[in-house]
Design a protein that fits this description.
By secondary structure, the protein is mainly beta. The protein has one domain: Porin (Beta Barrel), CATH 2.40.160. It is 8% helix and 73% strand. The longest helix has 17 residues. It starts with a helix and ends with a strand.
Length: 204
């Protein structure tokens, strides 16, 4: 808790210190999510993966640090969904998350009004909700991913990296989030998340 509070205070101080030269960017994008579950039973390891379509909307402040080195502080609201039907059984999964990236970026001016940047840093993720609805004939059941005895954690920490291109007031960016934490509560099972993303933004 103390570390989280310290991090928030540092981020707020950076925002206040740099707000005079900060640039606000609002953006939308596509970010398909994959969860990989690894289970060990009787010393035999098995692995399964589930992929979901993902969409996000958000904003960030781009704050100068020194020269061409800057840091992006922001937040994204992300929605993941997956539907499938097999042998008369239909299931629909939805998930809502908040991502808080802190991305250091270094950019170069290619020519007037065109800038390319590489970025890297941590992204903190908190799952607001997660649910799977299963329908068989006229019966339906709901599974809360984060309810009692669900076995899945809400918090994740990812290593994020990628590239962005700014053209006048517009930004095109893409990259990858590699989940670092085990999202499973139980023993002998691990769940790791990852996703690539591409987005389009406007600099206000």
């Amino acid at each position: 808790m103390k570390k989280t509070l310290s991090f928030a205070l540092v981020a707020a101080a950076m925002l206040i210190a740099g707000k005079a030269n900060a640039q606000l960017n609002v953006h939308v994008g596509y970010a398909p999510q994959t969860y990989t579950t690894t289970a060990t039973v009787l010393n035999v390891e098995s692995e399964t993966s589930v992929s979901m379509n993902g969409f996000f909307v958000g904003a960030d402040f781009n704050l100068p640090i020194s020269g061409d080195l800057k840091v992006d502080l922001g937040a994204n609201l992300r929605y993941n969904t997956k539907s499938e039907e097999n042998a008369g059984v239909k299931s629909t999964s939805t998930q809502m998350l908040v991502d808080v990236p802190v991305l250091f970026n270094y950019g170069l001016e290619l020519k007037r009004d065109v800038r390319i940047s590489a970025f890297v840093g941590p992204t903190i993720t908190y799952a607001l909700s997660g649910n799977t609805k299963t329908e068989v004939l006229s019966t339906s059941t709901d599974l809360d991913w984060y309810g009692d005895n669900s076995g899945q954690k809400r918090f994740d920490l990812a290593a994020t990296f990628g590239l962005s291109v700014d053209f006048r007031d517009f930004r095109l960016f893409g990259g990858y989030n590699l989940g670092l934490l085990d999202l499973a509560e139980g023993d002998n099972v691990t769940i790791k998340g990852r996703n690539w993303f591409i987005g389009f933004g406007y600099n206000l």
